[in-house]
Amino acid sequence: MTDFLMPSLGADMEAGTLVEWLIKPGDTVKRGDVVAVVETQKGAIEIEIFNTGVVSEIVVPVGALVPIGTVLARLGDAGVSSEPTRPTGMPANGTPSTGTPPTGTPPTGMPPVGMPPSGIPSTGMPPVGIPSTGMPSTGTPPTGTPPAGTPPTGTPPTGTPPTGTPPTGMPPVGMPSTGTPPAGMPPTGVPVTGVPLTEAAGAQPAPPAKPPQPAAPPPTFVPVRPSTGAARPRISPVARRIAGERGIDLRGVTGTGPGGAIVLADIEAARAPTAPPRRRTGFDPAAMRQAIAAAMGRSKREIPHYYLTQTVEISAALARLQSLNSERSPPERILPAALFLRAIAMAMAATPELNGFWEDGRFRAGDGVHVGWAIALRGGGLVAPAIRDADRLSLDEVMAVMRDLVQRARASGLRSSELSDATVTVTSLGERGAETVLPIIYPPQVAMIGIGRIVTRPWVVDGTIAPCPIVTLTLAGDHRASDGHRGGLLLAGIDRNLQETDKL
Amino acid sequence: MNRTEAKTVICDALAAIAPEADLGRLPGNAPLRDELDLDSMDFLNFVAALHESTGIDLPEADYPKLATLDGVIAYLTQ
Q1: Would you give the end-to-end CA distance of chain B in angstroms?
Q2: Quick one: closest CA in A to B44, which residue?
């Protein structure tokens, strides 16, 4: 029996609403299959499974808001061996959360939950998407009556010791080992069908649950439990936010939550009758902006950035492209961005110190050069899906993947692994962008590379000045993982690759 | 191809790329990429869509002629 957990969706996403199941009990699934669709701040994301087996149980109903790490479904072995899942980043000896009473301090180490795909732990990621304002959580799960429509599948969420053998080393789902729980995270057991993600946290808070049993976590789906030591809320974070958005004066709102706390329902009741209904679109620009702000805020707080820039003359590279494209019909043409990406990926492979993650106070190298490609979405917002093993793809293959990713990013068709696998991110400003960009590293990555607009400038060629196409490449590096010397070698490598066009 | 046909082909291609745009109010002489916020990939997809529906090759060297709606119409009807 294997638990299939909600995978990580990148540093700026901690939960999504399950909107569609593509499997049912009895179906055979294999690693990499798309099995569900989750609505997130970045639009609808296709969730891939990372085990092989036969579906024995669907645990989370359609409509539930699920934090990463939640058990979504269970697989039986059915003669197919599947490794037991263990959250990456947990000690291999199976030592679970220490059970230290939450102190209310900001998250410092372990994430609340985490079964990220591809072995990328979300370790060290604080709950993102929620500003670290110290707001208390109201996401206490219901302890008495189960939420209507949610079939409790096993141990009730009261901390009763389970009788079955828990998965080794599995922390209680949704239970932070230290620190504050994901503020604003609603109980996952509460169906939120049809409610946009940003409003989904309006579940009724309930009195805190009993302290968990860290050493014997319930092996079944349980609602997320916040720390029991959290201060009793007066207003839930989502209620506060929605009230702010709608300009509702909280002094005029009567709280109906526990202890008189104001919950989302109270805000809904108080809202102006003229307030337009929120429509669900491909993604919610406001929610995405919040996610970007949270991830970038964390980056600026935690990562000691250093910046390097290099001006690269690219007449040879552009001549190569022009020559290639002149013989191709439009759908087969290659953009300069693909050429840059290939040159960068090859240089990254030679500079492994900049390709990977900063986690738990140390660097972990990536398992390949998976380049996150920053794509601007129409209507605002960014998403940076990964081009896996970009250093091993041909120029045509890089271009094909880029086209596919851009198309799917804008149509909300990205997959979960694409949002979490990137080992470095590249942003290209394009023909209408600025000349230089100083990127902000996307945690937990340790480097980001920027490509400015191609411009024609005076350049010295063979002792004389000539107009030449040039581009400014920038590197933002994490000083905890590398220094400027190493970063300079990376930029020099990219420059060299762009001159040796026969290698591209 | 006459002007009306060209405009239909162009609007179909643009609608797929910028679904939120009001193409009926697109100025004929304004830069398309600025008006519709088209990046390099969008523009390549636009050219590819025109190629698919008209069979015209639209080489890169001709891209400057495709800067405005009027320019594209003139190019397709020439």
Answers
A1: 8
A2: A330
Distance CA B76, CA B58 (A): 9
Distance CA A89, CA A120 (A): 8
- The C-alpha atoms of residue A147 and residue A203 are separated, in whole angstroms, by 10
- The stretch B33-44 carries a mean pLDDT of 92
- Check CB contact under 8 Å for B39 and A325: no
Alpha-carbon span A179 to A236, nearest angstrom: 18
Give the alpha-carbon dihedral of A332, A337, A341, A344, to 10 degrees: 140
- Domain locations in chain A as residue ranges: 1-300, 303-503
What CATH fold (topology level) applies to the domain B3-19+28-77? 1.10.1200
Rounded to an integer, what distance in angstroms lies between the CA atom of residue A276 and that of residue A299?
35
Mean pLDDT (chain B) is 93
**Looking at the domain A303-503, which fold is it?**
Chloramphenicol Acetyltransferase (3.30.559)
pLDDT digits (tens, 9 = 90+) for A331-353: 999 999 999 999 999 999 999 99
Residue A358 — φ and ψ, nearest 5°? -105, 115
Strand order in the sheet with A43-48: A65-67, A15-21, A34-40, A43-48, A414-415
CA-only gyration radius of chain A, Å = 24
User: Is the CB of B48 less than 8 angstroms away from the CB of A330?
Assistant: yes
A174: left (phi over 0), alpha (psi -120 to 50) or beta: left
Distance CA A260, CA A53 (A): 47
Which value does ipTM take for this structure? 0.92
A127-149, pLDDT tens digit by residue? 333 333 334 344 444 444 444 44
Mutate to test the interface with A, among B39, B42, B53, B54 (most CBs of A within 10 A): B39
Characterize the bridge pairing of strands A371-373 and A386-387: antiparallel
Q: Is A168 helix (H, G, I), strand (E, B) or coil?
A: coil
Preceding peptide of A444 cis, ω within 30°: yes
DSSP classification of residue A197: G
Residues A431, A429, A349, CA angle at the centre, nearest 5°? 120
Q: Which of A32, A41, A478, A35 is nearest to A283 (CA)?
A: A41
The CA distance from B73 to the nearest CA of chain A, in Å, is 18
Q: Is A473 within 8 Å of A494 (Cβ atoms)?
A: yes
The DSSP annotation for B53-68 comes to HH-----GGGGGGGSB
pLDDT average, residue stretch A246-258: 65
Amino acid (1-letter code) at residue A166: P
pTM score, two decimals? 0.63
